[in-house]
Amino acid sequence: MKKKTKNELIGRAIQVHPELTTDPQSRQGEAGIVIEMKKNNEVANVEFKDGGRADYETDGLLMLYPKDIMLQGIISNPEIGVTNQKLILKIQKLADKRQYDEALKLAITNDTMQFHCTTNVDHWMDILREQSRNPRRTRKL
């Protein structure tokens, strides 16, 4: 079960939380790719554009939700307004083009975007674990 979660995260684009208070590498807000999971999947080794690597606890990393979850946010919450809806669609297009750095930066421009477009990696791993334990109760993400 943990192996599936581990494989789901390797290669995933993430962003170091911009408000992370203890970051010895000073990478707050920077995007990178998860290259390895450590310590029972509680720590991610992240590689950045400049080739630097650092270990982060998963609750200090943000990632984009899958496209279907972001679209559900638009459908379920029309009160977020047209401007935010267009921004979510722009984030999706950037992610589709694998321009994760730009997509992640846009996804945290305001609280609404962050809520509908991102989650921390730790929370995402919880979702994957729940899905693997109860495949009939959750849809494939």
How far apart are the termini?
A: 16 Å
Order of helix and strand elements from N to C terminus: HEEEEEHHHHEH
Radius of gyration: 15 Å
DSSP, total strands: 6
Report the structural category: alpha+beta
Strand content: 15-25%
CATH architecture of the largest domain, by name, is Roll
Low-confidence runs of at least 5 consecutive residues: 1-6
Roughly what is the average pLDDT, rounded to an integer? Answer: 88
**Helical percentage:** 40-55%
- Which sequence of strands runs across the widest sheet? 4-3-2-1-5-6
The biggest sheet amounts to: 6 strands, antiparallel
The CATH class name of the largest domain reads: Mainly Beta
Number of domains: 2
Shape call: globular
Number of helices: 6
Characteristic terms for this protein:
141 residues; alpha+beta; SH3 type barrels; 2 domains; 6 strands; 21% strand; globular; disordered N terminus
Characterise the protein shown here.
The chain has 141 residues and is of the alpha+beta class. The protein has two domains: 72 residues, SH3 type barrels (Roll), CATH 2.30.30; 52 residues, no CATH class. The chain is 44% helix and 21% strand. The protein has six helices and six strands, in the order αβββββααααβα. Strands 4-3-2-1-5-6 form a six-stranded antiparallel sheet. Strand 2 and strand 3 form a beta hairpin. The longest helix has 16 residues. It is globular and about 40 Å long. The N terminus is likely disordered.
